[in-house]
Design goal:
five-stranded mixed beta sheet; four-stranded antiparallel beta sheet; Rieske Iron-sulfur Protein
Amino acid sequence: MNAMALQVARPRGSLSQLERQAGLGRSDRGERETTPEWVRICRTDQLPVERGVAALVNGHQVALFRLFDGTVAAVGNRDPFSGANVMSRGLVGSKGDVPVVFSPMYKHVFSLADGACMTEAGASLGRYPVRQSDGWVEIGLQPGSAPGSA
């Protein structure tokens, strides 16, 4: 199996003037801006369906998965149990209605919806917000936060 890896360097996009005026991305208490910086990763059609792809984004490894329904999920690529960056090589499936990825190392099951481990409480891959825009996949990076903590 050939692994696909992508390297991305620059954030793209920000709040539009209308979004800023509407107060989107800000908490009701007027705290600092929490809207992510969007980073263009690849074209949606470059992602194989139900398989993972690793991307290096601003020094952080991200695992991207395009699901059968066309949605794209992004979680941290580092397996918290082995410490290896292998999650993009995991098997994709589901537990009930929740899309999951099985770690290729110790077979732990992680939700692609929120990155949480479903076989051992307290562990998580973290997740990244994802959007598709004009045929491109973009992930959101929170300024000043740990990778995958969005």
